[in-house]
From TrEMBL:
It holds the Pfam family DUF1838. It comes from Dreissena polymorpha. The keyword Signal applies. This is Uncharacterized protein. InterPro entries: DUF1838. Keywords: Signal. Residues 1-20 form the signal peptide.
Length: 271
């Protein structure tokens, strides 16, 4: 009798219910942290390509930066995500942060605007669909979050003809969050390591000033979770981004911290 009970206990532990996290809590542990006082930096690094109809993808930039965020549990068990983002465009061969783009489509020089999104808020009510990654079953789990953005463009063509790609803002953002399934089950930490991908397809950016020229942008990036705010970034990486840290510290000091309260913003995402 006692042996059976023990066996059942062992089985229930081995299927990973050890610490009783819900699917949503595990999702939050993977993408960020359950601790609202912990600021999590998700770093991203990759490429941006441009494409016109009937032509091939052509590399335009390297793309490097981060999202700094916190998750706050709501009384109904869902999570409020509060964050800011800062990303720069780099000349692909020299890695210099671009201030001016010699536009390969219009042949004009365009002033480059860094990505400085504040706030980027979201309400997360359920975990994204997750599946084990073959052939490493079940060590790795990947969560997919696909966001389709389609809404009236704040820059309408009748008012901003040179800057507006059209009456509808039209883009997709595709996230993959990979984490160690054994570790998710066997640990009780508020946050677990994550490596991921973020991809985006969109219209051209307003500062590219391309009017009605049909141009799509494709972003492919590798993303990963850092700890201890911005301190986690390795020395050699800090060296690579030191110019950009300079820009942030001088001009945008608040991008060193995640927001702690919700306020309205134009750039809110819904997961
Ligand atoms: C977060 O910080 C506040 C204020 O210091 C504290 O009251 C609260 O217990 C902390 N919460 C967690 C989960 O650490
Ligand atoms: C970058 O390097 C590639 C390969 O050497 C070259 O084809 C391209 O013209 C360079 N681009 C710029 C903007 O210098
Ligand atoms: C739009 O671009 C055209 C062609 O470059 C230019 O002549 C015109 O002044 C621009 N209009 C505005 C409002 O910037
Ligand atoms: C983790 O727990 C989940 C839910 O119980 C289970 O489906 C999964 O197989 C477990 N993963 C590992 C690697 O034990
Ligand atoms: C996953 O986590 C477990 C538990 O910490 C560890 O033993 C294992 O080596 C990890 N697997 C990988 C591929 O990192
Ligand atoms: C970002 O990507 C570029 C281009 O692949 C690479 O040279 C650089 O080392 C990467 N930076 C980090 C922090 O991974």
């Amino acid at each position: 009798m006692q042996t059976t009970w023990l066996l059942l206990l062992v089985i229930s532990f081995s299927v990973g219910k050890t610490y009783g996290f819900s699917d949503l809590e595990n999702f939050i542990r993977v993408i960020d942290s359950l601790n609202p006082n912990q600021t999590v930096v998700n770093y991203l690094n990759g490429s941006v390509f441009w494409k016109q109809p009937k032509s091939i993808l052509q590399k335009l930039f390297n793309y490097e930066g981060y999202n700094i965020n916190r998750k706050i549990r709501q009384s109904d068990g869902t999570f409020l995500s509060l964050s800011r983002e800062f990303v720069v465009y780099r000349q692909p061969n020299t890695s210099e942060i671009l201030l001016v783009l010699m536009n390969p489509i219009s042949y004009n020089a365009n002033e480059v605007f860094n990505v400085a999104n504040d706030p980027v808020n979201a309400h997360i009510g359920s975990a994204s669909p997750a599946m084990p990654v073959t052939p490493h079953l079940p060590e790795f789990l990947v969560y997919n979050t696909d966001i389709v953005l389609e809404y009236p463009n704040p820059l309408q063509p009748n008012n901003y003809a040179n800057y507006s790609a059209g009456p509808v803002y039209d883009s997709v953002e595709l996230f993959g969050f990979f984490s160690n399934s054994t570790l998710i089950n066997a640990s009780k930490t508020d946050s677990v390591p994550m490596t991921g991908t973020w991809m985006r397809k969109s219209q051209y950016l307003p500062w590219m000033v391309l009017g009605t020229t049909p141009v799509s942008l494709f972003y492919t990036t590798l993303a990963w979770k850092c700890y201890d705010g911005l301190q986690c970034v390795a020395d050699d990486i800090m060296q690579i981004i030191s110019d950009y840290m300079q820009i942030i510290k001088q001009n945008f000091p608040k991008y060193q911290y995640a927001p702690s309260t919700k306020r309205r913003g134009r750039l809110s995402k819904r997961l």
